[in-house]
Structure formats: structure tokens, C-alpha cells
Amino acid sequence: MAAAAAGLNPYFHFDSQSKQIKDAVFNCRGIIINERFWNRIRDELMDLTKEAGPVILYQLGLSYGLEVGIQGKEAVKDSVAAINFLEYYGLLAGWGRFETSKLRLTQGQLSGPAVVKVFDNFFAYSPQNNSGNPGCFFVSGLLAGISDGLFGGHHNCLEEQCISAGSKCCQFVVARTSLY
Fold first, then answer.
1. pLDDT digits (tens, 9 = 90+) for 39-89
2. Residue limits of the 4-vinyl reductase 4VR domain (predicted)?
3. Domains of the chain: which residue ranges?
């Protein structure tokens, strides 16, 4: 049974010796959290920090995403293949099903906006958002950071549609920023 279960998820496994969940991709410990736990963290952060909450969540995603992008590129070597790899990692991590539009690259850098759709986005499942505005600030930062790590330079990410605001998926637009 344990051998069969190990094959279900090649990226995460329970190490019976250490009694820990291991992330084989990023070579670290993992945890499992549920929606209630995430929603409590997000809601408390937003309540405590008021207007700064979205910026803090975006920055947390950006910082972590940069690490993920760099490690993903090192693991796969090709930025486009790394996107497929990270889409699958996100699916197996329980974050949702990511679909990235065809990328326009010039000399290995993103030369036009990319659209990322996330179906069944873990981070969007919260009590219905009555404002109608997207609210996945962490994922927006995460996608910008991953793009920074994969393609170099700086990227912004804007969420155009959100499950929590009634859309069928969360849709993000990632674009390289110009530095003057």
C-alpha cells in the first residue's frame, strides 16, 4: 500500500523515518493546510494591516515566487519547460489547475503579456467576495515572482477575474515591467 501511495504524488511524500512530509522538488519539509487555515491567516492579516494587507500578501507571493522560479529553472533548465513543470507542481500541491497562454519570448525574456488561468484556485475559496473585485493578492505576487525567477527582470501581475468574485476561474496577466 505504501509503495502504491508513494506513486500518487511524485513531488510530496511522507517520510516514515523522520515522520515528516517531504517536498522532493524543493528538498524541504512540507505541510498540509486546509481552506479554513488559509482563510484565517489571510483574514487576520487583512484585518490587522487594513489597506496594506493586499500589498503584504502580494510581496509575500513575490518573494516566494522568485525562489520557486529560480529553482524551477535550475531543475528543468528551460524556462518554457519550467512553466509546464511548475503548473504540474501547483496542481499536485493542491493550489489549483494552472493554464498558461502561449508565451512570447525575445532572447529568453517575456516580450508580451502572458495570461495565466487558475481553475479551482485554493487561494480564492473564501466567503463570497461582495465587492466583485479580484482578491488573490498572494497568487498575483507568486506569478510575478516566478516570472522574475524564470525570465529575469521584473514583472507585474494583475488579477482580472476571481473565483471569489463569481468567475469560473481566476485569470491573471503577467507582464515585464520597464525600468527607467
1. 899 989 999 998 999 999 999 999 999 999 999 999 888 888 999 999 999
2. 113-176
3. 54-176
Total-model pTM: 0.90
Q: Which residue has the cell 489597506?
A: 51
pLDDT less than 70: residues of the chain: 1-8, 126-132, 179-180
Question: Which residue, 58, 62, 84, 59, is CA-closest to 72?
Answer: 84
Burial profile 128-153: b = 16 or more Cβ within 10 angstroms, e = fewer: eeeeeebbbbbbbbbbbbbbbbbbbe
SS3 content of the chain, % helix, strand, coil (to 5): 45, 20, 35
CATH superfamily of 54-176: Trafficking protein particle complex subunit 3 (3.30.1380.20)
- Calpha distance 79→106 (Å, rounded): 12
